[in-house]
Amino acid sequence: MKNIARYILSRVAGLLGVLLVVSLITFALMHAVPGGPFDARALERQQMIPENIKRQLNVKYGLDKPVWRQYLLFLRNAVRLDFGHSLAFPSRTVMQIFKEQWPYSVQLGLLTLLFSTIVGIGLGIASAVRPNSWVDHAGTGVSIFCLVMPSFVFAILLQFVLSVQLGLLPTGGWDGPRHWIMPVLANSLAPVLVLQRYMRSSMRDAMRAGYVRTARAKGLSRRRIMFVHVFKNALTPVLTVGGPLAAGLVTGSFFVESIFRIPGIGFYFVSAIGQRDYPMIMATTVVWTAVISAAYLVTDLLYALADPRVTLSGEK
Amino acid sequence: MAATARTLNRTPSKKRPKWLSLFWLRFRRNRVGVAALSFIFVEAAIAIFAPWVAPFDPYRGDFTATWQTPNALHWLGTDDLGRDVLSRLIYGARVSISVGVLSQLAIAVVGLPLGALAGLRGGWLDYALMRVIDVLSSLPSLLFYILLMVALGAGFGNLIIAMAATGWIGMARLVRGQVLSLKETDYVRASRAMGGGARHIILTHLLRNALTPIIVSLALGIPGAMFAEAGLSFLGLGIPSPQASWGQMIGMYQAYIRTAWHLTVFPSTVLAVTMLAWFLLGDAIRDALETSTPSYSD
After folding, report:
1. Closest Cα in chain B, distance from residue A30 (Å)
2. CA distances in angstroms from B123 to A165, A265, A316, B85, B202, listed in the order given
3. What is the pLDDT of residues A186-196, one digit of tens each?
4. CB-CB under 8 Å, B271 with A160
5. CA pair distance A23, A283, nearest whole angstrom
6. What pLDDT score was predicted for residue A52?
7. How far away is chain A from the Cα of B265, in angstroms, using its nearest Cα?
């Protein structure tokens, strides 16, 4: 128990270090850009901001201070989860935007996770149980499709066929189950691919294991072997990809959210980029890195719980 | 004994690069691979000879012919400024293919020596490099691309720089791992025991044996880079507007899917088919180079 606590502590310390460096990199990159946020907005509205007003705006948002002091200020506030006001949406703070928009991304992510788990795991099992059958070939076909088809291209083609040609589904929005179908399908490409490939190879590995041969020798039914001996053991390695995958999904998608006009974090991030919304960009980068790194940590812990052969060690 | 002496005396330069002809023999038998290669050849030829192949100037608008759906004159229609979609697709192929190939060259140029150096020298250099890689790979890769492109600004050259800046990580890791495991093989030890110098060992033993995974990684990296270019251009961070790129066309016109579907559906289809061809080519190259690992479609 003491070991586990020490392990978690050392991992969290490492995570904080990573977050510090990542925020520093992002900060440096943002400030390497020629032109500040007010220039970008002026360009968009095709108007000039007088020099003295720009100076006052810079003073108001603290952009007149030396860069290193801006970074220290950012750090001090970020610890309290205060990322300041968004520059692109000045009426709201970054935390408010996160609070109000993130649920959309989480909902899309969880629906995608549900769908792709059913399809990916199901296809993976079917392909593993009957190798070189039509199911296996279909599974390979699906995974190649998922691999080469960019999500935004698939989204456009779905929109074209299902909304424009057939008129079955609305082209965008997020008001009800009818709006969910296309975004979830488009968002599922990568997770289906990963889950299907992992499940298949992990099942096939488990099927070759000694305990399966023993079980067969004992005369157990094929069904019982597949469920109790193979499936249960094959699921553990899939867990290792499942965690980070889920974290990636709930942080939202730039492409799918902007094509289907879903007001999630991905959608807001894309508009933040164009407008040089420093606080928003910094917050998104840091929060996402934190969520994904935390997912890796949780996955490793779960993996150690699920597989007694795995031992956690602080030093590696 | 005499036979051994003769074999040893034979200089490597006199030997035909046997693995290349062997590779071609094996590759030729893969019908899918040959089909993908032919498709890419045709597409590359169209891209290279774009000024002669394209029916219209991809940059000149015609305000009397805007928003046209596919017709006899404009086979794939025209866009909001009356520019010919087919011609823009043909010029977009130039961007897509050159981004794919050049980015992999840049990744090899940066990642290969760094990975090899870390693997060979070890010590603090290896330690420092691995920590840098740890931190950089904890950033979600798409986010890293986006941040770099925001900082550098949209443009072809910057796109290659951003891809090299993110892609070298995987290459360095791959090469380092190869060097570390190859360093311990019996033939490298034997070579060292027989007095083989560092140069000899690196060039003839390490490089030659690490070549297969490196080539496979680069070949499969090409569709990955095309995907990244299309994605960034879609977000408006890749190829800037007057120039044409498939991803950028999809991004610019996706809002008009109801009124002008041809503006997004054609680039989408071309992009998907091209990605499929490059991926199948990479897979076939791997099958032809590697004898032990099972292929993707196994």
Report:
1. 6
2. 62, 43, 16, 55, 18
3. 999 999 999 99
4. no
5. 9
6. 80
7. 6
